[in-house]
Structure formats: structure tokens, C-alpha cells
């Protein structure tokens, strides 16, 4: 058998916040259940990242395998309901395994794709993850398999990890797998397979190296990893594929040296997010702001505070994309910006013109000081995004 060719060493691009996805192949024990055999090395990598001031959100598989081990005395049931029950049983086991390896607290966050497509739930999920990171708590994210309908499919957590990376404005998506990276063909059966150290664009040819969609041809689920990298790239996030079973590779990664595949992106995170904000359809209605707020938004890149709001028109809800409108010198309204609102129209009308400290008093609760955060806002002109 021809030896599998190794990847050259390269320097990892700078990053401050990353999502690390760990597949069940790195956590499953030989006799069933979960093992710390490879998780320990990955935990040490995460700890070294924490020590250097970096942030990591962990997307971890393994719940179904852990649940099956707990119920191994029962006859095997491959139905979707049984798999969901196994996931429910195994979730606590998965988090407990990771918690044993860390001194800092961990928090379990269960998400479905619907949570991340639904704008209001998207905002809530992002706020929760951001707050956990601010508390120096490491979130452990998994698909909410217990209530999902058809999400228990090969590699789904790869795509979930890419979505979470965009959700938290990560710089990097790290995918730990049981192979060294992307090859031009399956290195286990093709002696001519060559390692692909770096990818600048996910072309049809590159995607073809991973085999057909939904198959194990190539490198065991590599297709879904490239799909995840494609999603991350659209958000301006680079992706690294590496072998989480190779302790030397993991140790070097902790020193920002990669033996694996780096999938680059030509888009910046800001460009990708601004493009998305510019093109997401706005709901009917708008937020009417005064001249000072309009200037602060367009010239200073500020967030929209209630003090600068005149009123809200329409019946939009928290999490909706709305237009922010000012009054021109000719008295005609014009669109200053568009963004995702943290408050519904009725709530905005109750806090309009007030100081941020008065929000809780007027509403009885608060979603934060900003009506629209600058990260969720894009300034508009006739030709697109303003400089």
C-alpha cells in the first residue's frame, strides 16, 4: 500500500474567536459510549487558546453514541424517535465529558437550524453566546436533535458549526476530523491522491474531490465539511480542516502551525455581513429618526439609540429588518440605513426620545441600550453601502 502523503506545514492566519467542531468519530469509544482519548488533546489545545486570550465555541457531536451506550441493554431501534431519545440521554454525557477536561465552566447550548433562520431567535441565540463568552464560559453547542425532524444526518454539525461561526462573528472555523485534510481523491484507495494544503476558492472541481453529495466517497463526510467551509467563506470566515486524532498536529495547531487544509475566503467579515444586511428584504414600516441620529448613523458609524428616534411606523417585531428614515432638507423622507431592530414598533414608540437608562422603567424589561446595533446596521445611499 502506498503511504498517504502528508501535508506541508503552514502558518495559521491570525484569529481571535473561533468555532471548533469535533465529530463523533473523535469521541466514540471502541466499545460504545464516549472516550477522552482524543478529546483530551483537543481540550489542551482549547486551554492554550484561552490562555492566550482567544475565545472558542465548541460544537460537539457524540450525544447519540453516548445515549446508545446508556441503553445498550435494550433491543436496537434505528427509528428516528429512538435516535432522538438517545440524543436526549446522551447530551448530558457529552457535556460532562468535556467539563471534566476544563477548569472553566461550560454551558450547553442546543440549537436547530430553525433557531438560526428565525430572526428573533437568531438575535436571542447570538446574545446568549456573546454573554457566555463575556463571562469566560465556553459554550458547547449541538443540534437540538431531541426536537429536530430530519437533522440527524451525516455531517449536519459541520454545517451547524459554520452557521454558529457566522452567528458569533468568528474569525475562524476549525473542523477536527479523523483524516488529515482534503485530498484530490480518496488517499486510502488512490495511490495518486495528493494533499490539498490550501484552497482559495471552492470551485466545482474542489467540491468534486470530496465525492458526491451525501456520500462517504473521498474522506468520510468531506463533502459536508466543504459545504460548511463554503457557508463560512460567504460570511468572510476562513476554515481549517485538521486531524484531531494526531496529537502532533493538534499540538502544532496550538502554536499556530497547520498540517492540514486551509480554506481561505476573499470576502472580509464586514463585507459579507454588510452585503447580507443590504439585501435582506425589509418588512413594511420604518423607524423615523431625527437629524442628529441620522448624522450619527451615516457619518460616525454609530448604533441607533432611543434618544434619536422620533417614532416607529408599522407593526414590525423584534428581529425584523427595517428601514431607518430621516427627513431631508426639502422635507421629504429618505432612507438613512437599514438594520435588524432589537425592539418591536410598539416598544420603540414607548421609548422614543428617551435615554437608554429609561428603557427598563418604560417597558418593564430591556433587550439592551440600542434600538439597532451598529453591527446589525448598514448605511444606505442610492449606489449601495456608503463608505
TrEMBL record:
Pfam families attached to this UniProt entry: AA_kinase, PUA
Metabolic or biological pathway, per its Swiss-Prot or TrEMBL entry: Amino-acid biosynthesis; L-proline biosynthesis; L-glutamate 5-semialdehyde from L-glutamate: step 1/2
Localization annotation: Cytoplasm
Primary localization class, coarse: cytoplasm
One GO-annotated biological process of the protein: L-proline biosynthetic process
SUPFAM superfamilies, A to Z: Carbamate kinase-like, PUA domain-like
Keywords assigned by UniProt, alphabetized: Amino-acid biosynthesis, ATP-binding, Cytoplasm, Kinase, Nucleotide-binding, Proline biosynthesis, Transferase
Molecular function in Gene Ontology: ATP binding; glutamate 5-kinase activity; RNA binding
Cellular compartments per GO CC: cytosol
Organism domain of life: Bacteria
Catalytic activity, reaction form: L-glutamate + ATP = L-glutamyl 5-phosphate + ADP
Binding site for ATP: 21, 177-178, 219-225
Enzyme class: transferase
Ligand binding (substrate): 61, 145, 157
Domain named PUA: residues: 285-372
Functional summary from the UniProt entry: Catalyzes the transfer of a phosphate group to glutamate to form L-glutamate 5-phosphate.
Similarity comment text for this entry: Belongs to the glutamate 5-kinase family.
UniProt-recorded name of the protein: Glutamate 5-kinase
UniProt organism field: Rhodanobacter lindaniclasticus
Encoding gene (name): proB
Amino acid at each position: 500500500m502506498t503511504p498517504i502523503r502528508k501535508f506541508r506545514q503552514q502558518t495559521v492566519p491570525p484569529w481571535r474567536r473561533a468555532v471548533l467542531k469535533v465529530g463523533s468519530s473523535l469521541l466514540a469509544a471502541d466499545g460504545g459510549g464516549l472516550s477522552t482519548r482524543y478529546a483530551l488533546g483537543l481540550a489542551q489545545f482549547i486551554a492554550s487558546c484561552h490562555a492566550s486570550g482567544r475565545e472558542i465555541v465548541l460544537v460537539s457531536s457524540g450525544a447519540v453514541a453516548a445515549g446508545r451506550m446508556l441503553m445498550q441493554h435494550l433491543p436496537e431501534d434505528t427509528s428516528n424517535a429512538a435516535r432522538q431519545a438517545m440524543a436526549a440521554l446522551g447530551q448530558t454525557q457529552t457535556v460532562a465529558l468535556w467539563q471534566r477536561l476544563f477548569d472553566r465552566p461550560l454551558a450547553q447550548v442546543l440549537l436547530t437550524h430553525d433557531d438560526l433562520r428565525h430572526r428573533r431567535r437568531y438575535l436571542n441565540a447570538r446574545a446568549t453566546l456573546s454573554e457566555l463568552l463575556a463571562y469566560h464560559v465556553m459554550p458547547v453547542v449541538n443540534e437540538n436533535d431531541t426536537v429536530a425532524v430530519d437533522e440527524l444526518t451525516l455531517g449536519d454539525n459541520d454545517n451547524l458549526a459554520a452557521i454558529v461561526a457566522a452567528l458569533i462573528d468568528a474569525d475562524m472555523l476549525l473542523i477536527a476530523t479523523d483524516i488529515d485534510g482534503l485530498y484530490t481523491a480518496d488517499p486510502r484507495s488512490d495511490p495518486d491522491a495528493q494533499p490539498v494544503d490550501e484552497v482559495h476558492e471552492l470551485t466545482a472541481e474542489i467540491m468534486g474531490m470530496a465525492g458526491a453529495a451525501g456520500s462517504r466517497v473521498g474522506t468520510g463526510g468531506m463533502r459536508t465539511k466543504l459545504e460548511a467551509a463554503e457557508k463560512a467563506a460567504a460570511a468572510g470566515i476562513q476554515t481549517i480542516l485538521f486531524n484531531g486524532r494526531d496529537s502532533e498536529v493538534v499540538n502544532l495547531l496550538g502554536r499556530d502551525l497547520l498540517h492540514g487544509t486551509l480554506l481561505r475566503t476573499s470576502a472580509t467579515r464586514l463585507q459579507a455581513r454588510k452585503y447580507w444586511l443590504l439585501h435582506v428584504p425589509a418588512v413594511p414600516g420604518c423607524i423615523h429618526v431625527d437629524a442628529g441620529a441620522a448624522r450619527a448613523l451615516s457619518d460616525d458609524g454609530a448604533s441607533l439609540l432611543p434618544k434619536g428616534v422620533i417614532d416607529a411606523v408599522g407593526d414590525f417585531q423584534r428581529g425584523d429588518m427595517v428601514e431607518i428614515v430621516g427627513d431631508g432638507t426639502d422635507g421629504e423622507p429618505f432612507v438613512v440605513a437599514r438594520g435588524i431592530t432589537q425592539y418591536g414598533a410598539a416598544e420603540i414608540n414607548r421609548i422614543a426620545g428617551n435615554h437608554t437608562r429609561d428603557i427598563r422603567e418604560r417597558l418593564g424589561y430591556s433587550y439592551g441600550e440600542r434600538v439597532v446595533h451598529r453591527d446589525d446596521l448598514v448605511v444606505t445611499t442610492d449606489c449601495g453601502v456608503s463608505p
